[in-house]
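Below: protein 1.
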Amino acid sequence: MDDRALLGDAPLGKLNGYRVLVVDDDEEIRMFLTTLLSDEGAATFEASDGNEALEMAASTTPDLITLDLSMPGKDGIETFTDLRKDPSTEETPICIITGHPEFRKVIYDRPVTPPEGFIEKPCDPDHVVDTIHRILGLAKRKKARSKGPAA
């Protein structure tokens, strides 16, 4: 029996069909975000540091990446810049989720395309889902425009 049969006529989540990479060094935050996003229908993948995030982004081709900025080793700021400079991930929407709002200026002053979203911790679950849903909707429209009209 598949999940849809178990759910009956339950509506699909706002993020159904999307793939999201959750990057945070705090296991509890990763669990919170992956559970929240999975409950909304997203397929989620996790990375606990910048190097793992770069590897996972290349291997899972996510539709969106949530990224913490304050991590040991390769921090989120360096990871963000690397993701934007890599041709395979430069167009992937990124939503910064951090407990350090003072980093906002630093991340927006990078010589790369700024993130599509910025959420401060602690974060409201509805705000996270709504923000990610909005970012994915914008990315979908941008991609459709770049393909041009159908022949």
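Below: protein 2.
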Amino acid sequence: MPAGRCATLAANPRMMTGPAGAALHDTRAGLRMIRVTNSINLDESEIEEHFIRSSGPGGQNVNKVATAVQLRFDVQRSPNLPEAVRERLKRLAGRRLTSEGVLVIDARRFRTRERNRRDALERLVALVRRAAVAPTPRKATRPTAASRRRRLEAKQRRGALKRSRRRVTTDEG
């Protein structure tokens, strides 16, 4: 595919194996799904890829072949993401998220297009997995009596040290 061209993952029959831990499986509608967690599956048609020329290793080949992959996933409009996961994913994505809510992942670590595609997909799956884990709420705890006593003693020592540094004034006069 020439530089700057776009493809969806579903259009490529060679991409049968998913990223580490993410199995690609066929659904009844004939579309392949990428299993992220037990409850989250991403439809391959939601993922768009653009192939661009890569900098870095590749010798003379780097100027001729578009091996870098720019993976795009529409977080905002994906029907397969629960709302809580969508919000956490937006926060985790940071500057990789466009103003339209599209997550853009650039993969150019490897010299071949196929390895860069796999790398981009693995990074997407890892990011969605991180977003799928709900943060544990903080339990409110009270300091123990001993820790309060230690804190107050430390404050007393610190205050005494600062008092000892003061200028000595004599009351003459």
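Residues 6-132 form a domain with the Double Stranded RNA Binding Domain fold (CATH 3.30.160.20).
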